[in-house]
Amino acid sequence: TEPLEMHNAADYRHRPTHQPNPNAEPMYPNAAPIPQSHSYQPYAYGAPPVDLNNPMIQMAAASGAQFFDSGHRMIQSNVQQYVSVGILRYYFSVDTSYVVKKLGVLLWPFHHKNWQRQKDMDTTSQGFSPPRHDVNSPDLYIPVMGLVTYIIAVGIYHGWTSSFKPELLGRTASSGLVLVALEVFVLKLGFYLLDGPRASLIDFVCYSAYKYVGIVVTAVVHFMLGGTAGYASLLVTGLAMSWFMFKTIAASLVPEAHGTPPSTKHYFVVAVGLLQLPISWCMGV
Fold first, then answer.
1. Region for 226 from its dihedrals, namely left if φ exceeds 0, alpha if ψ lies in -120 to 50, beta otherwise
2. Does the keyword Calcium apply (predicted)?
3. Contact, 285 vs 219, CB < 8 A?
4. What mean pLDDT comes out for the span 246-268?
5. Are 127 and 117 in contact (CB under 8 A)?
6. Distances (CA, A) of 117 to 99, 130, 131, 155, 248
7. CB–CB of 238/214 below 8 Å?
8. Alpha-carbon distance 53 to 23, whole Å?
9. Do 133 and 120 form a contact (C-beta atoms < 8 A)?
10. What are the backbone angles phi and psi of residue 130, rounded to the nearest 5°?
11. Cβ atoms of 203 and 191 closer than 8 Å
């Protein structure tokens, strides 16, 4: 009988003392449920990643490229009726070195010391050196590329949020150009009232449209890092543009205003500088 007793003892040791009842009430009804899986979200504290395979984003990019081609053909066919080829060649006379230096001045102008434009009587723009020879000279290349990139960035953003419509690109371009035109009008009117030196209308357009650079940078930061970082970038780039306009107008466009008290000129320059922040805010993605 001994082997039988040992078998029964072993069987007793492996027999469960409690059989679970699936219909029974839980022992701790108020306990929080244990999650079955812990899915890691890399963008929990930032912006979701941009899926470049998203059909809406691809449609936005394609529409942006088509919009750029249409605008380029329109400019080629119409602008030359009002602006001579020589003047356009002057404002597009840039090279890689100039573009890199100019972008640095636009994004961080606080370390730039000399804001005076270089004289060159052989050029067609009021005796100033072309952009490739002077980083302080205005150009049209960066504003045009900035405008195109800005329109495409707005389209990609709305494609990212599944709210893209093709007509959005036209409205974006129109609203941006209207704000630039209003600022150019303010600059031209201020120069007239202050009896300042004559300045080319294209110079004003260049200076005003430089803000597209900071707006595009802000859009990229917003895409990659989220809204908080985007607002911080907007503040930094807006202040940089304010300082750039303040120094440029004070040193280059308004070297002196004959017959006008200096304080009036300074108020105008400060007002134009402060105007950059709200304009950048309105044009932000």
1. left
2. no
3. yes
4. 73
5. no
6. 16, 10, 10, 37, 9
7. yes
8. 48
9. yes
10. -70, 165
11. no
pTM for the full model?
A: 0.73
Handedness of CA 35, 36, 40, 46 (dihedral sign): negative
Look up residue 218 and give its two tokens: 């802000």
Helix axes 262-283, 227-248, angle to 10 degrees: 150
Q: How far apart are CA 218 and CA 216, in angstroms?
A: 5
The answer to whether 276 touches 187, Cβ cutoff 8 Å, is no
For 165, the 3-state DSSP assignment is: coil
Say which residues have a Cβ less than 8 Å from residue 248's Cβ, sequence separation at least 6: 115, 136, 207
Quote the CA–CA distance of 180 and 279 in Å, as a whole number. Answer: 9
Q: What angle do CA 236, 118, 92 make, to 5 degrees?
A: 70
- Torsional sign, CA 101, 206, 168, 73: negative
Higher pLDDT, residue 260 or 233? 233
In this prediction, residue 212 has a pLDDT band, given cuts at 50, 70 and 90, of very high
What the block records as the tokens of 285 is: 């993605």
Residue 80 per-residue DSSP state: G
What one-letter code names the amino acid at 196?
A: G
Helix ranges, 79-200 (H):
85-91, 96-107, 141-160, 167-193
CA atoms within 13 A on the CB side of 277: 11
